[in-house]
Design a protein that fits this description.
By secondary structure, the chain is α+β, with helices and mostly antiparallel strands. It contains 12 helices and 34 strands. Strands 3, 4, 5, 6, 7, 8, 9, 10, 11 and 12 form a 10-stranded antiparallel beta sheet that branches. An 8-stranded parallel beta sheet has the order 2-13-16-17-18-19-20-21. It is an enzyme of class 3 (hydrolase).
Length: about 675
């Protein structure tokens, strides 16, 4: 994620941008524009990874997001050990509930809760968990409760789901029988009786004695692929529907950490859940105006689960690892070069974890987690938004070690925080000298920048390092939260993406950022997909990204207007590709003006076109329109057919629209 974004460009007014888009003479606007498409001249190959997604644990993206756990602070490891929990006692007994710390015995998860009971019954002592901005509870759905415990007595745990009015909408009783000094896992499933947008989970105790509790957990049955302890299905389905070419994970700034102690360490995110060491999410403290003191990473969603998700939806995995540099905007902490070996070994071990045979150390660990077959990792990112000569000198060491052992792994390297300036120029120059496989460019800019940068890659080198447009989003001014995801932002991104597609021999991968945002827990906006505890919807940007991904094609073919690429003439932008798998010509047209635009699509180099094509149009009624929970598809694709009589197709692009035409070739 790009820091201090608001300092990097001056504010612009939407009306002024709209005026620029529609500035043209009325007579020219009404003339038919003839697009020449040379379907028999395939040029750049479009990589299967061209359009992907970037996941970062920001905006409650993981805990409270795609990781379906409903209990917040389930192992009492937050800075405030009882954050998220409310303990109620009648009468109050000092010391009845205490946080214990087993230092040295179980370092990844040292704390647990000790509850001392004396003939406890309903109303005497209870613990209520608030969830992540509440718990989304669905009527008639099964919920799976579990807890690690130990006790010398026999105690009953009454587990209840509550709605916003504190009414019970699901309950069960768990018998905690004597275990002595050993820890035991208890599990019980039960159904809810009603729906709650902001529910809670209460546990009250019955009996006498002492009971220790840890890893208190509650999951809905309807996780992705019904995996116990899995991911939230509706959110993952939205990704699967996009058919992304890759998933970049786990960030983003959380890779760097506020300092090196806070960095992401993949080895601490695999293995048994109770042995994964929680850390503070750096978005906990990043923005004072959007502070989130309860934002931590439990790593129930770890590197194994990320790889598994990529496997599930047919996307390449693109993990990003720390390169020995913490966030340069925050601590700027560095690992001395002579102490970099453990970081490099982590990279080599990750490749073995993903691709190694089950006889290797880390391949065996993968197999023990349930995936004996290799994940076939092809890409590895070294560093996130790092910059300066200190990054280059560390990257060189990483690149040498990785290429010597795994020459086929493609390395993704940072070009800093923005698309221009001295910082970018230094990195871009040095990375190309190193022949780094992919250079990760980031741009969070205004809609005006995206419209004006459609030709950005037209004059880039066609050989050597390729570009990964790893983080980008169009940011409109004078809006906040989900209101930033306007049609203006999305249509400017669509225009820019035609330039990426047209230059597929330069740009091999691209992903919008951020991906997910919880409406009650966001730090950064705009975002592609917005969620609350029960619902999710795609912004206009989501549908732009989805249409490009589903209509990727295999080869770019020339599309010109007056012998020039279509890159803003009269607010029109266009690109075209051949889909070899279906033998179709795919044409993408963005009309960013407020007028209809009459065009002729003249297809050359083919004998004949099939008489009927498929047309998909994404259109906003105005530049400021947004989607919402109440109107989730206000801007969404509309499909129809288009009659084709000759190789010259009359097509009128609607105002403020993005059109995709698929035409069968003969």
């Amino acid at each position: 994620m790009q820091h201090q974004f608001n300092k990097l460009y001056s504010k612009r007014v939407i009306i002024a941008i709209a005026a620029v888009l529609i500035l043209s003479s009325n007579s020219f606007a009404q003339q038919k524009k003839t697009f020449i498409i040379k379907a028999n001249q395939p040029a750049a190959t479009i990589q299967p990874t061209m359009w992907g997604v970037f996941f970062e644990d920001i905006n409650l993206g993981a805990d409270g997001g795609i990781y379906a756990e409903l209990i917040k602070n389930r192992s009492f490891e937050f800075f405030k050990p009882l954050m998220g929990w409310r303990v109620d006692q009648k009468p109050f007994v000092e010391g009845a509930v205490t946080v214990q710390n087993r230092q040295g015995a179980n370092l990844p998860n040292p704390r647990f809760l000790r509850v001392q009971l004396n003939n406890a019954a309903k109303g005497n002592l209870s613990m209520t968990n608030e969830g992540f901005r509440g718990m989304g509870i669905k009527k008639d759905l099964r919920y799976d409760f579990s807890v690690m415990y130990r006790t010398a007595g026999n105690i009953k745990l009454h587990v209840e789901l509550l709605n916003a009015k504190n009414q019970v909408i699901g309950n069960s009783v768990v018998d905690a029988t004597a275990t002595g000094d050993a820890w035991k896992k208890l599990a019980k499933s039960f159904q809810s009786t009603d729906t709650a947008q902001k529910g809670q989970c209460r546990i009250w105790f019955e009996g006498t004695g002492t009971i220790d509790l840890d890893m208190i957990s509650l999951f809905p049955e309807d996780t992705w692929k019904k995996r116990p302890g899995g991911m939230r299905a509706d959110m993952i389905q939205m990704l699967a529907d996009m058919k992304p070419g890759f998933i970049r994970f786990p960030g983003g700034c959380i890779v760097e950490g506020f300092d090196l102690s806070n960095r992401y360490q993949w080895k601490k995110t695999i293995g048994p859940i109770e042995e994964r060491q929680l850390i503070m999410n750096r978005w906990n403290i990043e923005f004072p105006h959007r502070s989130a003191p309860d934002y931590f990473q439990t790593f129930g969603l770890g590197f194994f689960e990320y790889f598994q998700l990529c496997d599930d939806i047919g996307a390449e995995a693109l993990p990003i690892l720390n390169c020995g540099m913490a966030c340069q905007f925050n601590s700027a902490e560095l690992v001395p070069l002579d102490q970099l070996d453990p970081y490099i070994q982590d990279a080599l071990d990750l490749i073995e974890f993903a691709n190694g045979d089950v006889t290797t150390t880390w391949g065996k660990k993968r197999a023990e987690m349930g995936h004996a077959a290799p994940f076939n990792l092809k890409f590895l990112g070294v560093g996130n938004e790092n910059w300066g000569p200190q990054y280059i000198e560390r990257l060189k060491i990483f690149q040498k070690a990785i290429k010597e052992k795994y020459p086929n792994i493609k390395i993704v390297a940072s070009s800093g925080t923005g698309p221009d300036g001295d910082r970018f120029e230094l990195l871009n120059t040095e990375l190309r000298k190193m022949n780094t496989d992919l250079i990760d460019e980031h741009y969070y800019r205004s809609p005006e920048w995206f419209f004006s940068s459609v030709r950005r890659y037209d004059n880039y080198p066609r050989t050597g390092s390729k570009v990964f447009a790893g983080e980008y989003a169009s940011h409109v001014d004078k809006t906040n939260g989900a209101q930033r995801n306007t049609w203006l932002a999305a249509i400017s991104e669509a225009a820019f993406m035609t330039g990426l597609e047209r230059n597929a021999d330069v740009v091999s991968m691209a992903s919008y950022a951020p991906l997910f945002s919880h409406i009650d827990g966001w730090q950064w906006a705009p975002d592609m997909i917005w969620v609350d505890n029960l619902r999710s919807y795609g912004s206009p940007t989501y549908y732009v990204q989805k249409l490009f991904s589903l209509n990727k094609g295999s080869k770019v073919v020339p599309l010109t207007l007056n012998n020039d690429v279509v890159a803003g003439q009269d607010s029109l932008y266009a690109s075209s590709v051949i889909d070899a798998a279906t033998n179709e010509l795919v044409i993408k047209i963005v009309n960013a003006s407020n007028k209809e635009q009459a065009t002729v699509l003249s297809v050359e180099g083919v004998k004949k076109l099939v008489a009927q094509g498929k047309l998909t149009v994404l259109q906003g009624s105005s530049l400021t329109v947004v989607n919402s929970f109440d109107q989730p598809t206000q801007v969404s694709p509309k499909e129809s057919t288009i009659a084709i009589k000759t190789k010259k197709i009359d097509y009128t692009a609607a105002p403020y629209s993005f059109s995709v035409l698929r035409i069968k070739l003969q």
